Amino acid sequence: MNINLEILEASFIYDKNDIKELNTKELVPKMVTRRRLTKAAKIVIYLSSQINSKNERIVYGNAYGELKSTQSILSSINAKEQISPTVFQNSVYNTAVSYLSMLKGNTSEIMTVSSGDITSLNILKAGAVKALDGDEIVLIVTEALNIDHIEDLNKCIDYLEVGVALKVKVSKKEKTMNIDTTNNQKYPASVIHMLNIAKSFDKTKQNIIEITL
User: Fold this and answer.
1) Is 108 helix (H, G, I), strand (E, B) or coil?
2) In what order do the strands lie in the sheet with 2-15?
3) CA 159 from centre of chain
4) Is the Cβ–Cβ distance between 63 and 123 less than 8 Å?
5) Backbone angles phi, psi at 187, to 5 degrees
6) Which end of the chain is more exposed for a tag (fewer CB within 10 A), N or C?
């Protein structure tokens, strides 16, 4: 089965180490809330603002989860120390998009996907199925891999922090874009399907992709 999706909005951001320009202070005015945010949550909130997202249904995903929180939990266990309740709360895969939903007051359906290297491809597939209902769907993928001693583990990824957001809807028109899987710059493979779509997005044209389920 094939489903064609029109890309209505697209945004992406990345850095080899640490994405800094996320406008978090303006987007999240309450300091108490800002202090609780994970890096992935800051990226998600920023991307949502860039695609003018409101109360759409969301399909969100990442391959590696909240690594910094996981690292903190494991360090506490290793040191036989008490685990921080905030860190524990922030350790689940849907942490980032949950903060977004609370900030926006979004009570629409949110799905979280984690599928290793094909995470963003499966976000696209899940989003295509959801979009059959006729509404606009927001698709977001992030990776925030810049944790302590990551250099001891990472030998193949150049960009440690990446985020991509697409707003899509079903289209009956023919596809105008292919889904490119080229990854010459060593981004996390989990984001590459959506990242290449976002990079190719042209606001002056119709941007339609074909999703094969």
Assistant:
1) coil
2) 110-113, 57-61, 137-144, 161-170, 2-15, 208-212
3) 14
4) no
5) -80, 160
6) N
Q: Tens of pLDDT along 7-17? A: 999 999 999 99
Rounded CA-CA distance 20/43 in Å is: 10
Q: What angle do CA 184, 13, 190 make, to 5 degrees?
A: 55
CA distance 93 to 57: 17
Neighbouring CB atoms inside 10 A of 86's CB total 13
Q: Which residue has the tokens 């199925």?
A: 129
Domains held by the chain: number:
1
Task: Specify the length of the chain in residues.
Answer: 213
Handedness of CA 159, 160, 166, 171 (dihedral sign): positive
Amino acid of residue 164: V
Q: What is the pLDDT of residues 86-128, one digit of tens each?
A: 899 999 999 999 999 999 999 999 999 999 999 999 999 999 9
CATH number at residue 78: 3.40.47.10
Beta-bridged to residue 165, according to DSSP, are: 11, 140
Q: Smallest Cα–Cα separation from 133: which of 59, 208, 195?
A: 59
Helix (H) or strand (E) holding 38: none
Which of 157, 164, 150 has the alpha carbon at shortest distance from 70? 150
Report whether 68 contacts 144 (CB < 8 A): yes
